[in-house]
Amino acid sequence: MSSQTKTRILVGLAAILAVIVFFNLMPAGGPVTPGAASAGQQYKAIAVENPALHLDRIERLRKLEYKPTGRDIFTAELPKPVEVKQPEAYKPQGPLPPPPEPPLTVPFKFYGFSQDPATGKKQGFFNSSDDVFIVGEGDLVLGKYRILSIGNTVAEVEEVSSGKRVRLNLEGGGAAPPGGSSEN
């Protein structure tokens, strides 16, 4: 190859390189003329609520003092647990109040009633194991339990010696029909 041919190839490659560089550096919208880009756009300020420096916040951060927790941030080990002192248990002073009294339990059950149609007086049927008691309101059962009231589903009983009261629910199948037996 002659030196003239080499020169022509070199000039051709330089021209191709110049075209490639020219098109890579030019913007996508075409050539830019001075003043054309700024004339079409309106100036808008950035929206900032308060552009002033917050000197109080800066001063607060300056006064902030670093307090280490004792953990080495460059190791994966957890720090030792901190011992928390348990407060002393509440200890009441003076004598303890007496425990509440247990509820009254009676040795019999309310399982029915009858009502005299003429007088309207009710009698309740109570049983204690094999014994059956037929008593009216105000009467005593077993000598120490007074029947205060007899309702359709509940009888109220009071222990005479202590004054404690208990309500006995009707058990076992319902009440006797009105006008039933009124015998003791």
Q: Give the CA-CA distance, first to last residue.
A: 148 Å
Specify the helix fraction band: 10-25%
* Average pLDDT score: 81
Order of helices and strands: HHHEEEEEEE
Low-pLDDT ranges: 174-184
Describe the biggest sheet? 4 strands, antiparallel
Inertia-based shape: elongated
Structural class: alpha+beta
Number of helices: 3
The gyration radius over C-alpha positions equals 53 Å
Q: In order across it, which strands form the biggest sheet? A: 4-5-6-7
Strand content: 15-25%
Number of beta-strand segments: 7
Describe the structure.
This protein is of the alpha+beta class and 184 residues long. The protein has a domain at 109-169. The chain is built from 3 helices and 7 strands; from the N terminus they run αααβββββββ. It has helices spanning 3-25, 36-40, 55-63, and strands at 109-115, 122-128, 131-136, 140-141, 145-150, 154-159, 165-169. A hairpin with a 2-residue loop joins β2 (122-128) and β3. The longest helix is centred in the first third of the chain and has 23 residues, at 3-25.
What is the structure about, briefly put?
The chain is an alpha+beta fold and 184 residues long. The protein has helices at residues 3-25, 36-40, 55-63, and strands at 109-115, 122-128, 131-136, 140-141, 145-150, 154-159, 165-169. A four-stranded antiparallel β-sheet has the order 4-5-6-7, with no helix packed on it.
